[in-house]
Design the sequence.
């Protein structure tokens, strides 16, 4: 991993939700209000302060999770996320999954 990559990614072992809409978060980034927040794919383009990732700007979340651990928060968030995925039109679902796996 290059030094640049280290500042564009955050590794988590727990699912976190977007601070704005409670969807599955994909970014930890600085907001226009100056604070940092968890953001989902939909809120990130609207709420982020910087348009790029990096040190002091924002990181993409890279999840390393073991769904067998039975964490209630993980189960709940995963269930909601899968439910949302199922309701999406197929092209949107493909995009969502692609975004999730992109740098896994
Ligand atoms: Zn959101």
Sequence:
């Amino acid at each position: 991993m290059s030094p640049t990559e280290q500042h564009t990614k955050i590794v988590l072992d727990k699912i976190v939700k977007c601070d704005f809409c409670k969807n599955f978060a994909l970014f930890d980034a600085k907001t226009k209000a100056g604070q940092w927040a968890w953001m989902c794919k939909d809120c990130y383009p609207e709420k982020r302060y910087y348009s790029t990732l990096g040190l002091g700007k924002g990181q993409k979340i890279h999840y390393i999770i073991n769904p067998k651990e039975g964490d209630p928060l993980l189960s709940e968030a995963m269930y909601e996320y899968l439910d949302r995925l199922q309701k999406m039109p197929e092209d949107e679902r493909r995009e969502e999954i692609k975004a999730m796996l992109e740098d896994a």
Q: What stands out?
A: The chain has a mean pLDDT of 82. The chain has four helices and four strands.
